[in-house]
Design a protein that fits this description.
With 426 residues, this protein is an alpha+beta fold. It has 3 domains: 120 residues, no CATH class; 147 residues, no CATH class; 118 residues, no CATH class. The chain is built from 11 helices and 18 strands. A 6-stranded mixed sheet has the order 9-15-16-3-17-18, with helices on both faces. It has a 5-stranded antiparallel sheet with strand order 4-5-6-7-8. Helix 5 crosses helix 6. The radius of gyration is 25 Å and the shape is globular.
Length: 426
């Protein structure tokens, strides 16, 4: 997301402390080229950080088209900014053991600054190197020694011990993963939508005003409130007790029940369940309630991405959406993305994969915001590169050039002309 020297769309660049970053990245590529794998890899890293440990054997996830990879560990590294500080966080995992883990403050134009570095020694012991500013007294030094001895297990992230460490930088990093990095997949259903509608009045107004312009038939989204006992009825008491236990530590608990995301909260000394329904006008103008999953696939997808559109305007969040064009009409998607990219007050970042070639428009994106994923035909691995590497003229029809294969990252179709499928019909 680092900008090149291009002068176009300067309002697409944000200051992230010591470095400028871009507003968006649109990732194109043929089916099976690896676009979704990129998103899933980021999702894996987020899950690792939020859970604080490696829960399964990573050997099952290794690249299967090269046998030598079975002997190599899996590596993740991500660089991001929070509170005007750029961080580099990384992990090396083999099986379910963490071989290395590190966090640095990125120097950008100078040497990176160590925050911590953790390694598994050849003898199987954990070694932790901590920045001197976090080892000011004997208590802090003793805690690191205890982590090395037995408090930190081989499958646990040092980052996951943030509550014990009381380290500002580590807390910032976990906070970014928890709340600032949000991923939406094709099967992500209304999770963020329901939470935001229930808790943010401004967002509710934004959604309903936006829906009016979409011509989906939805007149508004509304919140229905039901008493906890009435909603869950005869559900297993153990499950209900677990939900209530979680409610003690947080007055606002999202929960997925029978495929529906609801929010359990305390209201006027009562425990209630809040759920979102859509309203449609009947033939005499009355509002009729519908379940969200009764809406069309296109309307559901619009509702999935609505929090991203809102947060882009007001919050310094990074949204990553896989297959943003799924079930959405090309003209509507073009208008939505154009509007968010043209807005010079946005604060967030949007990264998405797509096949929608109508978005290949230099009036919408900078050249360094358009990316391609291409699979190496001999090795099966994926290479990512940006349009700016081709240095196309600004007046070039990017869409036409892409569809003709000028920039790669499209299916190889030559053999399709030679396919005679009538030969296979009895």
């Amino acid at each position: 997301m680092l900008p090149s020297s291009l002068k176009t769309h300067k309002h697409h660049m944000y200051s992230a402390g010591k470095v400028d970053v871009l507003k968006a990245a649109a990732i194109y590529g043929a089916n099976g080229a690896g676009k979704s794998n990129l998103i899933m890899a980021i999702d894996w890293l987020k899950d690792l950080v939020t859970s604080g440990k490696v829960d399964e054997d990573f050997n099952e996830l290794k690249f299967k088209l090269n046998k030598t990879n079975q002997e190599k560990p899996v590596s993740f590294e991500i660089e991001f900014s929070f509170a005007d500080t750029a961080y580099i966080y990384g992990l090396v995992i083999d099986g379910n053991s963490i071989l290395e883990e590190w966090l640095y403050e990125s120097g950008v134009t100078k040497d990176d600054i160590l925050i911590f570095e953790r390694k598994l020694t050849p003898t199987g012991k954990i070694s932790i190197k901590m920045a001197d500013k976090y080892l000011k007294n004997e208590k802090e030094k003793l805690l690191i020694e205890l982590m090395e001895e037995n408090l930190l297990k081989n499958n646990e992230l040092f980052l996951g011990k943030s509550e014990n460490l009381n380290n500002k930088d580590i807390n910032y990093v976990r906070l970014w993963f928890y709340h600032r990095l949000i991923l939406i997949f094709p099967d992500t259903k209304f999770d963020f939508l329901v939470r935001a509608l229930v808790s943010v009045e401004k967002f509710s107004k934004f959604v309903n005003e936006t829906l009016e312009t979409f011509d989906t038939g939805v007149s508004e989204l509304d919140i229905e409130t039901t008493l906890f006992e009435n909603f869950f009825g005869e559900v297993d008491e153990k499950l209900k007790n677990q939900i209530l236990y979680n409610l003690h530590s947080d007055n606002f608990v999202p929960y997925e029940f029978d495929g529906e995301v609801v929010v359990i909260s305390k209201e006027n000394e009562k425990i209630v369940v809040k759920r979102v329904v859509s309203k449609h006008k009947d033939n005499v103008g009355n509002n009729i309630s519908f379940e969200l999953d009764e809406e069309s696939d296109g309307t559901q997808r619009l509702l999935d991405i609505m929090p991203a559109l809102y947060d882009m305007l007001y919050l310094d969040f990074t949204y990553i959406i896989d297959e943003i064009d799924q079930s959405i009409h090309p003209a509507l998607l073009h208008k939505l993305i154009s509007k968010i990219m043209a807005d010079d007050t946005t604060k967030g970042q949007l990264i998405f994969t797509t096949h929608e070639s109508n978005l290949l428009d230099l009036d919408i994106f900078r050249q360094d915001e358009i990316w391609f994923a291409e699979k190496d035909k001999t090795r099966g691995s994926t290479q990512l590169y940006s349009l700016s590497e081709y240095k196309p003229r600004y007046d070039l029809d990017i869409r036409k050039g892409y569809l003709k294969g000028r920039f790669g990252a499209i299916p190889f179709l030559a053999n399709l002309d030679n396919l005679n499928w009538h030969d296979h019909v009895a």
